[in-house]
Design a protein that fits this description.
By secondary structure, the chain is mostly helical. It has 12 helices and no strands.
Length: 277
């Protein structure tokens, strides 16, 4: 019988008394000790880790969305396309997380639900930031963060900037020569359908050869929203599967509230233009 494989024989470093290790670089001691269940229920660990990992993916999504916004504003469309494709796949990862959480039954959830108190994913400031970056700037949702001045400052900082869709519309107007009204650039309200914006996108979709870059940008945004909608839909079905139509721990109407969110369109003109082509 041959001796067991020894990575040291291949030159692998085995001592890290003086050098940074894998765990050091990733801060694994902090990450792996950040789970503190408040009950003895087996499934609470699943619930905590699913939400913590989702928040990490959202942090990356924000990092990439900000990069995409800056690239589009600078006219660097190819790098923006790469980043937007990555964000769509991040939401695919977030989607997969619901598949794991759905293995938790209503009976499992009731064993620790009271431990959550009034905490709820509805209160995620990173999710709110993602919506604000994408253009769904509902100011009514800021009040839930009143107890965190630092978070309010982050949200206000985002509201002071043009959204990802705003910089896209600036590129659209510049390339097509369409004059878009102020309603297309509202920073402190959710973006709503603007006929002039749809008309500009219609020109792009009817002459893709001339406007190929804008056409590709539009489809990247549609792809992103497609994955974002799937995430929302899977959220709804997961919540309904686990708690039915009970109210959420944060006081929302639960499934009813989440179903309302399914009707929100981030880039409405990119969807409506399809019916007129």
């Amino acid at each position: 019988m041959s001796d067991p494989y020894n990575p040291e024989d291949d030159g692998a470093q085995m001592s890290f008394d003086r050098d940074m290790s894998y765990g050091d670089y990733l801060g694994l001691d902090r990450i792996l000790t950040a789970q503190a269940p408040l009950s003895t229920a087996h499934d609470e660990m699943l619930f905590i880790i699913q939400h913590q990992t989702s928040e990490l993916w959202m942090k990356l999504a924000l990092h990439e969305l900000n990069a995409a916004r800056e690239a589009i504003a600078a006219g660097a469309f190819q790098p923006a396309f790469k980043v937007l494709s990555r964000v769509a796949r991040i939401f695919d990862q977030l989607n997969s997380a619901w598949d794991v959480l759905r293995t938790m039954t209503p009976s499992d959830y009731t064993t620790f639900r009271e431990s959550l108190g009034k905490s709820s994913g509805f209160q995620s400031h990173q999710y709110r930031l993602i919506e604000y970056v994408l253009g769904n700037r509902n100011l009514n949702l800021m009040k839930v963060h009143d107890h965190r001045p630092d978070v309010l400052a982050l949200l206000e900082g985002e509201l002071a900037r043009p959204s990802l869709y705003h910089v896209t519309l600036e590129a659209l107007a510049g390339a097509t020569g369409h004059s878009l009204p102020d309603a297309a650039y509202q920073r402190r309200a959710p973006h709503a359908h603007v006929p002039e914006v749809e008309a500009a996108w219609r020109e792009v979709y009817l002459d893709t050869t001339r406007y190929w870059t804008l056409y590709e940008l539009a489809e990247k945004l549609v792809d992103l929203e497609d994955y974002f909608r799937r995430w929302r839909f899977n959220h709804v079905t997961t919540v309904e599967r686990v708690i039915g139509f009970k109210r959420g721990t944060g006081g929302t109407s639960g499934v009813v509230y989440l179903r309302k969110m399914l009707d929100v369109e981030l880039f409405p003109e990119l969807w409506s233009v399809r019916g007129g082509l």
